[in-house]
Amino acid sequence: MKKHLLSVAILGTFAGAAYAQSSVTLYGLVDAGVNYINNDNGKSNWTMTLGLLQGNRFGLKGAEDLGGGTKAIFQLENGFTGGGALAQGGRLFGRQAWVGVTNDRYGAITMGRQYDSVVDYVQPLSGIVYTGLAHPFDNDNLDNSFRVNNSVKFTSANYGGFKFGGMYAFSNTSSTDTGSGFATNRLWSAGASYTQGQVSLGAGYLHLNAPNANTTGAISGDYINVTTTSPLHAAGLASAVIREDIAAAAATWQLAAVKLGFLYSHSKYTSVNDSLKFDNYGMSANWQITPFAYLSGNYTYTDGKQDSKGLKPKYHQVELIGDYFLSKRTDVYLLGAFQRAAGDATVASIAPDTYGAGGSSAPDASTSRSQVLVRLGMRHKF
């Protein structure tokens, strides 16, 4: 009898040790607020929406210790709209869905639906993390208008503040398929970041071939709209994008309670007989007034050019936000944004719901060159 009890105790000890080596975490975020838009398709509008400052989500992430500093890891993350429907084109886990392995010394290799390197290394240093609002049309994808399917990603370990990584996403199409090929709707990207003391730097590059050209490839269903049917109107491309390239770099400098940020990004959309380019110049400042309150401002100047027509759409965008934390997980905020279209841009569009964010709660384009958005919101993380 004593031997039996001893065996049960030993087995229980090993079971507890094995359990301690694995973990699964449930997490999520809900952001809700009331918006005022001065010109929403020609009329002022009051709305109550979810997911403007940050996209609403819930997810599971976990790790299993394999020994020797190596772990198996995974993440499944759902996005949902204000009406509770699935976002990101109706996907169950449209924000992220990947599995991989990580090592303390070398880094991680992950496979599935993931973020590209521009988002990984540049977005955290941009003003988008404070206001949640993209550059016009999210032309550089820094606001995650699309995620990447069929991707294999490497993310290095942290070497004295320096990190780097890259991604390749498959088209999942045979090179012998009629009217398609191995390169159709594939993607690759690379990036790096460095932090030392009060200074952080980040840079990234993203290349896409015929994005959204099929349903099997890297981008499917949630690609950015830069055609003549978007608020770009005459400055939009007349046919589908066959190539897109994005290069971006950012830096932040922490000065006591104030963090200053600078960003530059260049995006180029190429169609059969045309191209559309955007250069974004951004400056941001975040003032941590108290441990529970901050005030942030962001300004972006976007300079566009369409080669075939010689058009030069331009945009000025200013955002201000005051945020107060009721606890570590709950905050209330007041957000204001103003956009002014200039040059050959005929209408303002702070965050058009046509850019493919998958159930976006953003307003439609203005019918004039100016648009104002004010939002009073609350966010809770769990």
TrEMBL record:
Keyword terms, alphabetized: Cell outer membrane, Ion transport, Membrane, Porin, Signal, Transmembrane, Transmembrane beta strand, Transport
Cited Pfam families: Porin_4
Highest rank taxon of the organism: Bacteria
Domain Porin: 8-338
UniProt cross-references to InterPro entries, sorted A to Z: Gram-neg_bact_OMP (IPR050298), Gram_neg_porin_domain (IPR033900), Porin_dom_sf (IPR023614), Porin_Neis (IPR002299)
Biological process according to GO: monoatomic ion transport
Cellular component annotations (GO), alphabetically ordered: cell outer membrane; pore complex
CDD domains, alphabetized: gram_neg_porins (cd00342)
Bilayer topology annotation: Multi-pass membrane protein
Signal peptide feature range: 1-20
One Gene Ontology MF term: porin activity
Subcellular location: Cell outer membrane
Primary residence: membrane
Subunit-structure text: Homotrimer.
The protein, known as: Porin
